[in-house]
Amino acid sequence: MKIKKINVRKLFYNNKFVVVFSILLAFLLWIKFSSSSAESTSKTISNIPINVALSESAQQDGLVVFGLENVTAEVSVSGSRLVLGQLTKDNIQVFAQQSAGLINTTGNYTLELSAKKTGIFTDYEITSSVAPRFINVFVDHYKTKSFEIAPEIKYKSDPKYFSSPVSLSESSITISGPDSIVSAIAKVCVESELKDTLSKTTTIYDLPISLYDENGKKISYSMLDMSFVKVDATIALLSRKTFKVVPTFNNKPDGLSIYSNQINVSPAYVEIAATEEMLSSIDKIELESIDFTKIKAISNDFNLALKVPSGCRSLNNIYSAKLKLDMSDMATKRLSVKQFDFLNLSEGKTASCTTSSITVDVIGPPAELKSIKANNLHAQIDLTGNENFTGVTELPAKIIIDSNNKCWVYGTYSVNVKVE
Fold first, then answer.
1. The pTM is what?
2. In this predicted structure, what is the pLDDT of residue 141?
3. Which of 5, 143, 327, 332 could form a disulfide with 182 if both were Cys (CB 3.0 to 4.6 A apart)?
4. CB neighbours of 378 closer than 8 A, spacing ≥ 6?
């Protein structure tokens, strides 16, 4: 009898055969994987955080455990592949079981660690002790304090330049941690030493913060929380130049000339440090302006501030100068002002002076004073800022001289004004 050959390729075009074959294959694979998943195996769970519990009384006393920030533990477990494949560090709790009753004051403690299961998976065993078995922790109260940062940078600079004090990218720092450690900090600084002589502005990047106690011993900040741990330090080298000091005036009569032999400034010159670009834009250093109402027909003495531009330094540490202004060749004439003008009076209002006249001192060259009469003077009262005022008040009066540009009025004056 002739046996027919089975064509395997044609079988896979038969739908019934494919269905039966697929079911059989799936069943065999299920048996294999079920058997494999049930096999017992072992695994190490790492990077498990450590929990140190404090008693309620210790917590009420404000005690805090320090030294756990970068410490983790590991344990070995055994069980089926299926269970172990789903285990993570969150399923194991590592703790110091004895700590709750042991810790009741500040200090260093050595604690033994234990592990237990947590979460929904329980079908496995913890087969090893915790590694590490013991840990050292520090218990103290929590403290936060701010400190100024001192730059301690050793360097040499070219004497042609002025070296500004070292500036830091951050001038102060906030440090938190154990009270005993934070309280022991006596100095916070950054340290560096440059060997080359500097001839330009230099920045040193990423200088580490250093902490010292009152005895100069360095303090570790392993248990400290710092707002930052590095800063940049800049050593600015500025160009130097000497400038003449000159006076300036407000309300100076346009036609009046003041000659150099009438002016004496002490010091007459100051040395200024700034960038090359800034120094090139300066031709003199001015004194604080003097209003001519303060100048008499005598030798006048003033102590005035120097108007040092922003970004510049006086290398002499001089920021004021004495000015002697000789106006003794001028004359004084006393006159009465009876004419009053009101500026910026609100619409619908009227103003009048209850002061009938003001006696003023007019100063100027003798030949000019001869031609000035009382009717050449009038007082201006500015009502700016008093637009809503009604009643009687005292306001400053500015004395104006008509038809003369070489004389001025000495002193300040005020009048009583009625606004209706």
1. 0.61
2. 93
3. 143
4. 337, 339, 340, 341, 399, 400, 402
